[in-house]
TrEMBL record:
Membrane-crossing residue ranges in chain numbering: none
Protein name: Related to coenzyme A diphosphatase
UniProt domain Nudix hydrolase: residue ranges: 79-215
Biased composition (Basic and acidic residues): 331-348
Native source species: Ustilago bromivora
Region Disordered, annotated ranges: 331-369
InterPro entries found in the cross-reference section: CoAse, NUDIX_hydrolase-like_dom_sf, NUDIX_hydrolase_dom
Pfam families: NUDIX
Length: 369
């Protein structure tokens, strides 16, 4: 299916004010020029971004993985390697947005789920970066051309539920006139979200508007939200622990966008990308106690007695008993206000501090584990 509109129109719709749509600058300031040079992009590609967003891009561009979390280990066979292309672009209010897709509901594997475009390595691929670019082109029509999708960094590999080792590549889309071509066999639709939103448990009001959430959480809606493993109840972020390889307890996160939830591996990748970009820890508890790193999980999947040496591996995850639901009290509204911070000069969406144990719960009881 060919989509005739440009990328920005597809993701935000054609009816928008001129102030929120990207425009081509008539001149480039020295700030844009120096930042563009360091990122190896045309100066005009940064003209619609805030200084906070430009700094986030520079953080991604300078990212270096920690020792022990480098590229896909040699022990992983080629047929169990995959890559995804995390495409960022200048969205509304000069913030960084990420392109996401809703997988076709007809797919047998993860049908209807939110995904970052990508797929398996093929023998004809020169490397995993090419895999990510090729798959993004085949699925949604993002250009393979590295001048239109400029590489910012390569993130450490992740282990998926079906035990593929997935390497994410973060790119900046510099051309808003890109016309996506959705492959109907693989993708139902496209949408986008602010990258910074994946650092929040309770987003502040300016960000809630961009996420199409009410200014304050609706008490009735909160009653129907899934229970959290930790943290007060939220209408944006929830988490649950599962038991995976070797009996290890792993925390899985879900973000409840109105178009489609973002969960599992996709959430994990977006949380890491946002944390690197904005130099902040998430507002929620990211890992279970003693949770293995992704590098350790990959070793368990490929270099241990429980390794499965097959092309396809069925998920070996076991969901724990659902936590008791939170009891709701009127004091929650006060709690949400306390988590909000006034806007500063750096960004439209300032980061709130992480929730600390025993503080700011406002009468909302934590679930029994």
């Amino acid at each position: 299916m060919k989509v005739k509109e440009g990328l920005y129109n597809i993701l935000f719709g054609p009816d928008r004010s001129s102030s929120s749509s990207p425009t081509t600058p008539t001149s480039s300031t020295s700030k844009f020029t120096s930042a563009a040079a360091s990122l190896k992009v045309p100066p005009g590609a940064l003209a619609n971004l805030t200084s906070h967003s430009i700094h986030a891009l520079q953080n991604l561009s300078s990212f270096t993985p920690r020792p022990g979390s480098e590229p896909c280990p040699a022990s992983v066979p080629a047929y169990r390697r995959a890559a995804v292309l995390l495409g960022l672009f200048a969205g509304r209010n000069g913030e960084l947005y990420v392109v996401l897709s809703k997988r076709s509901s007809r797919l047998r594997s993860h049908g209807g789920d939110t995904a970052i475009p990508g797929g398996r390595f093929e023998p004809t691929d020169s490397d995993l970066e090419y895999t990510a670019r090729r798959e993004a082109y085949e699925e949604i029509g993002l250009p393979i051309d590295s001048t239109k999708a400029v590489k910012l960094c390569q993130l450490p590999p992740f282990l998926s539920a079906n035990e593929l080792v997935v390497t994410p590549y973060v790119v900046l889309l510099t051309d808003h006139t890109i016309q996506p071509h959705l492959n109907p066999r693989e993708v139902d639709s496209l949408f986008s979200l602010p990258l910074v939103s994946f650092l929040y448990h309770n987003p502040p009001r300016p960000l809630r508007k961009s996420l199409h959430l009410p200014p304050n959480p609706d008490p009735e809606a909160l009653r129907h939200m899934p229970a959290n493993e930790v943290s007060p109840i939220s209408d944006w972020h929830t988490c649950r622990d599962i038991v995976w390889l070797g009996g290890n307890r792993i925390r899985r996160h879900t973000f409840w966008d109105e178009r489609n939830p973002i969960r599992g591996l996709t959430s994990d990748i977006l949380i890491m990308a946002a944390a690197i970009a904005y130099g902040e820890k998430p507002q929620f508890s990211l890992h279970s106690p003693r949770q293995p790193s992704q590098a350790d999980l990959i070793k368990l999947a490929f270099d241990s007695p429980i390794a499965v040496k097959k092309f396809r591996v069925k998920p070996r995850m076991q969901f724990l008993k659902t936590p008791d639901a939170f009891s709701f009290t009127k004091s929650y509204e006060r709690t949400n206000d306390e988590l909000e911070q006034p806007q500063d000069e750096k960004a439209d969406f300032p980061l709130a501090p992480p929730i600390e144990e025993g503080k700011g719960n406002g009468g909302v009881r934590k679930p029994k584990l």
